Amino acid sequence: MRLRVEFTTEPFDLDEAPPHAVVARDVIQAARLDAVDVGPFGNTAEGGADEVLTAVDALLRQALAAGATRVSLQVNVIGEGEK
């Protein structure tokens, strides 16, 4: 099964990425995922279910530990060729 995760962390800072946002980005970029897209207003990544769920666990734990007060995420099951 393939999954797509979309997430944001708060609080926002448009001038400089806060530590929790940097940690979240680093977790996702280091994970064994493909189609990773990080940006100032939202982030997405795709991969196998085990890889995505492992990355989401690390993302939540590390972003909250780094000062995130809210993490919004959505996980969708996608087809093999769906983008």
Primary descriptors:
83 residues; alpha+beta; 4-stranded antiparallel β-sheet; 2 helices; 35% helix
What's this, in brief?
This protein is an alpha+beta fold and 83 residues long. The chain has helices spanning 19-30, 49-65, and strands at residues 2-10, 34-38, 43-48, 70-78. The chain is built from 2 helices and 4 strands; from the N terminus they run βαββαβ.
Can you describe what's shown?
With 83 residues, the protein is an alpha+beta fold. The chain has helices at 19-30, 49-65, and strands spanning 2-10, 34-38, 43-48, 70-78. A hairpin with a 4-residue loop joins strand 2 (34-38) and strand 3. The radius of gyration is 12 Å and the shape is globular.
Helix and strand topology:
Blueprint lengths: L1 E9 L8 H12 L3 E5 L4 E6 H17 L4 E9 L5
Antiparallel strand pairs: 1-3, 1-4, 2-3
Helix pairs in contact: 1-2
